[in-house]
Structures are given as structure tokens and as C-alpha cells.
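Is this the right way to post C-alpha cells for a design question? Let me know if I should format differently. Anyway, here goes:
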């Protein structure tokens, strides 16, 4: 085979990448290969929740790297028990399965839910109910569970047993739940879907509807969990709305690939020997970093800090909306998962922000998302607002020209 031309990348062209590359990071800042500093309000899409090159995580990684990286799950891995103990002690869950990514955690959750009913002699209960605007990952079952039809185009027919409903429509959910219902999967705070939030009342009603129908409730807290909303997990804002299964990842490794599927012992009762597995999931290196990250994320002082900084940013963004009604349409989200629905094209707005050396993420419904590290300082939050306002001014000027 002839090689590609020298000006053509050998990477598969599935990303629309900004013409920007970085060589190092320091907390909430990224330094480009050209030496320019950027305030990072993307954080790897809510992954680098403790900032770049966090010294505690770096130390944990280095210490474990000198001892053991990988042994396979055919052996006991004590570091898995350590992180599983932390996760179950802090949540509704009794058991954990470790993965390398969020989408793998979703796959495990979907299999766990269907296996639960099959093991109880109800194999007809396969229907997974999801919601429009949702994003649960890019693997095949995950895109079928997600609410973005474009992610399925060109990949053959939909898998059977996946139903999509309008986000937050409890009447539609009540009507859809029935004798073939297996589980409901929902992000308590949507990320890619435009930072839409389920109210505490809606979460509790969803829990009650699942109980009445005998269906399982799955929360996807891959983006909104682990401190992002100001509580360790978003479902904690609604006591009585605990799930049966929950997917986490992103912040769990602080930038190192770690995911997990958490479940009650009852919900996971069908997941017996041989029903699931992973080559790399739960390897000692990932678990060491995961333990170090979790201990910081579960610090009440950090969670209080998230609430404080989030309150400041939301207040300041509301002020910008008043001053730039031609640019900003709405402020939404929860905690430091902030969505700003804007009137200009959101992709063009993201580029304008980069021109101000501010990195922001995109989102559905023409939103941009602010997902800064959870330990963003108040001074850095002020700088974020300054640069965001400068971006709004750029957008206004561009619209007038």
C-alpha cells in the first residue's frame, strides 16, 4: 500500500480538531506547544477535575508505576478492593465492576440490568428507556441507549429493546413502562445534551415509577458525578431517588482512564462468574490513581468550594446575559457543569473564546459548556468571566460587521 502524502494525517478522521496543541498543564491552565497559556474550562470534558499535573495524582501514579501495572483479573487485585470500598461506603451501592472508560461502564450497566431479569426467569424484559439529548458513550449498545439518532447513522438498524422519550416527561415515562420494561437510564444533569437538569421532584418521581413497574433505575453520572454539582453525586440532591445501578468515569481517574459500574447487590445478582469481564479494567495502576483522586473528590471542603465558585460563576454569567442579550440566551446546569445557550453559532463562539485564550466545550441546543477543574480558584473564576465577556464582545462585533 502506498503511504499517505506527508501533509496528510495517519489518524482516522473522526474528530474535528481545533488547530491547537498543548505540551503541559498546570492546574487550571494549559500551555500550548507555542508557549501560550490558556485558561482551561473544558478540563478534558470534565475529566481533569483536580486540574492538570495534580501533585497528589502524579505521586500516586509514580509510586504505583514502580511496583506493578497489570496482572489480569484472573488474580485478586487488592487495589480494586480498596477503591470499591471507598465507592460503596459513599454511595447506595454494594458492588462495583471496574472499566477503562465511561462507555464501558454503561455497557456493563445495560448488561447487568438485562441479566437481572433473565436470571429471574423474565427474559422478555429487555426494554431500556432513555431520553432525547442524552449521551451514554460511543459503543454500540451505548449509542442505541443515547438520544442522538445521528450517532447511529450508517451503522445498521437499531438494536431491539431501546426506547427514547422526551427529556423530563414523566407522563411519557409512565405510559412507556410496562411488562417488557427492563430499566430507565438517565443523566441527572445532561452534559452533551445542553446542560439540562432534572429537578429533585422529577428524580423522585422517576424512582417511584420504576418501583411501581418493577424496572431498574440507572443513573449515568459519568459527567455530572464525583463532585461536579457540589455533592459527590448528583442524585444526592434528591434523597429517596437513589438508583439501582450507576455509571461513573471521567473525574474518577483525574485524567487517567478509569470507569466503574456501581450496583446494589440485588441489581447485580445475575452477574455471576463468566457473565462479564475486562482485560485492563481495574488494573493496579488505574486503581492507585483512582483511590488518590477519590479521596480528594470526596473531601467536604472541596465540595463546599465547588458550590461557592459555581454560585459566583452563575451570578456573573447571569449579569453577562443581561448585558449581552444579543449573545446569551440562557444559563443552565448545576454546580460546575454550566451550560450557556447562546445566539451565535456555538462552534464559532468556541473559536472566539480560544482567541481570548479561554477553552470552553460545546453542547447540544447551541450551548457552550463550562467544565473547569473543581479546585478552580476564585481568582481564576474571575479571569474566566473576564475572558468570557471579551468573547461575548467579539461575538457582538462580528454580528454587527
Amino acid at each position: 500500500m502506498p503511504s499517505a502524502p506527508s501533509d496528510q494525517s495517519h489518524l482516522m478522521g473522526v474528530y474535528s480538531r481545533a488547530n491547537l496543541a498543548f505540551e503541559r498543564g498546570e492546574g487550571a491552565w494549559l500551555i500550548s506547544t507555542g508557549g501560550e497559556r490558556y485558561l482551561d474550562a473544558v478540563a478534558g470534558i470534565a475529566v481533569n477535575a483536580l486540574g492538570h499535573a495534580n501533585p497528589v495524582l502524579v505521586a500516586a501514579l509514580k509510586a504505583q508505576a514502580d511496583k506493578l501495572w497489570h496482572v489480569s483479573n484472573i488474580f485478586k487485585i487488592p487495589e480494586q478492593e480498596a477503591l470499591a470500598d471507598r465507592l460503596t461506603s459513599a454511595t447506595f451501592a454494594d458492588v462495583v465492576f471496574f472499566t477503562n472508560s465511561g462507555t464501558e461502564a454503561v455497557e456493563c450497566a445495560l448488561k447487568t440490568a438485562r441479566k437481572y431479569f433473565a436470571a429471574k426467569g423474565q427474559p422478555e424484559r429487555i426494554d431500556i428507556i432513555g431520553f432525547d439529548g442524552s449521551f451514554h458513550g460511543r459503543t454500540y449498545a451505548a449509542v442505541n441507549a443515547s438520544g442522538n439518532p445521528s450517532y447511529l447513522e450508517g451503522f445498521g438498524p437499531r438494536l431491539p429493546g431501546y426506547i427514547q422519550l422526551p427529556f423530563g416527561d414523566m407522563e411519557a415515562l409512565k405510559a412507556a413502562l410496562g411488562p417488557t420494561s427492563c430499566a430507565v437510564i438517565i443523566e441527572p444533569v445532561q452534559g452533551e445534551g445542553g446542560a439540562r437538569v432534572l429537578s429533585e421532584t422529577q428524580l423522585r418521581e422517576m424512582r417511584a415509577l420504576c418501583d411501581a413497574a418493577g424496572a431498574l433505575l440507572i443513573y449515568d453520572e459519568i459527567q455530572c458525578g464525583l463532585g461536579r454539582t457540589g455533592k459527590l453525586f448528583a442524585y444526592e440532591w434528591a434523597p429517596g431517588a437513589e438508583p439501582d445501578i450507576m455509571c461513573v468515569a471521567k473525574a474518577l481517574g483525574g485524567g487517567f482512564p478509569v470507569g466503574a459500574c456501581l450496583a446494589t447487590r440485588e441489581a447485580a445478582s445475575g452477574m455471576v462468574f463468566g457473565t462479564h469481564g475486562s482485560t485492563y479494567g481495574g488494573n493496579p495502576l488505574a486503581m492507585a490513581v483512582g483511590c488518590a483522586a477519590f479521596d480528594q473528590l470526596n473531601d467536604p471542603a472541596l465540595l463546599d468550594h465547588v458550590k461557592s465558585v459555581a454560585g459566583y460563576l452563575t451570578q456573573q454569567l447571569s449579569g453577562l446575559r443581561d448585558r449581552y442579550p444579543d449573545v446569551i440566551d440562557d444559563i443552565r446546569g448545576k454546580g460546575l457543569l454550566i451550560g450557556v445557550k447562546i445566539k451565535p453559532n456555538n462552534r464559532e463562539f468556541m473559536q472566539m473564546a480560544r482567541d481570548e485564550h479561554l477553552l470552553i466545550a460545546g453542547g447540544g441546543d447551541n450551548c457552550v459548556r463550562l467544565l473547569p477543574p473543581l479546585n478552580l480558584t476564585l481568582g481564576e473564576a474571575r479571569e474566566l468571566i473576564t475572558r468570557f465577556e471579551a468573547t461575548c464582545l467579539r461575538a457582538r462585533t462580528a454580528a454587527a460587521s
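Format looks fine. Someone answered above. Worth noting: Residues 68-297 form a domain with the Aspartate Aminotransferase; domain 2 fold (CATH 3.40.640.10). The chain has two domains: 22-52+311-400, 68-297.
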